[in-house]
Predict the structure.
Amino acid sequence: MTYDSSHNGMPVISDDNADQFLNPVVDGVMRMCSAMPQPEGAPGFAAVKPLKTFSRADLIARIKQQQATKSDLISILDSRSVPVKDQGRTNYCWIYGTVHSMEIAYSLQGEDFVPLSATAAGVMITGGQNRGGYIGEAVQYLGEHGTCPQSMWPEHNLSLRNNSDAVESAATANLLTEWNELPYGDLDQLDAALALNYPIAAELPWWRHVIVFVGHTLLPNGELGRVIDNSWGSRWGKNGRGVLTPEKARGRMYIPVSVKPR
Amino acid sequence: MTSRTLAAVCLLLIVLLQFGTVGGLLHSSPVPGEGLHVAILWESGNRGEIPPGQLDAIFSTEVDDLIKASGGAKFLMDVATDQRSESDEWARRAFAIPHPSLPMIVIDRNGRGEAGPVPTTVDGMKKLVGKYAK
């Protein structure tokens, strides 16, 4: 299968061009792909009850119906101006992706958009180290402690001195309350979850990177592309968004089912 | 004035005091408040069981725009999540009313409103919200 290198202004990442997306320079900054595989024995998460999957024709019909009524996740994010995140020079894609999926869950709930500090959670998890990680540790921390707004702890500031009682208290207002995990690499389940407007944070082994799946797009060759929000700022791709071909979309996937109302 | 007429006038006065207008009786709100509020009660983790048209009605940005244009607010509330931290007092009251079947919509504009199943199409949802939007 051959692919165009871009679609609707978004880069299309396939086997043909994947190498150029490994640690590229974007907006003058080398971007780090630092997701680590989840260690054996790490706490697991409840597997979601298998979602009803679609035939290809039914899935495409469903996507078109959602787009026609502007009720798909991408329309919602655009209508509420929810921006992608920017991890800067940090190795924190694993926490940026997870926190972004949480911001999306808040937006779906009808809450005003409050940019959350992924750095705050990352620093608290790592003790201030600029290191890679995996979604499981991000999810566990965000479920227990939450994270504060960016206004209280600016992104890219890795100093533990930002922490305070006020920061910790504010963090508890932005808490994950329920998460589930999709079967590893199962694109049918990924598609079914996207059709239900779940944002899906995913660790992709080929990329050593965490992104958030937010929707579908039908590519000119008839293949279905999965649209992602990256964490390399809005100057990457089209406003921070790109497309993964099926062979590049398989990985460990997490769904934020609900967040604490605020 | 006969006693029957007097009784009718008294009844009308009671209705007016209770609901503001006679029309209000037709749409007396289960959760009266100020301004436009829309709450959708559902179970987020169970959304795979919701028919597609109803799901679109829940998520439609066109409906959101209608609510926003009227200065209103929409709340999507998961019945499986503790809602005590919800800062909006009207939304907390809407969540507290019985919800025998899900997904359910509660809508109010200045004391006029209703509660019931979420419409099964976006057009149906726009029609329902449109009754209360400006």
Q: What stands out?
A: The beta strands of chain B are 36-42, 73-78, 104-109, 112-117. The helical segments of chain B are 3-19, 22-26, 52-59, 61-69, 89-96, 122-132.
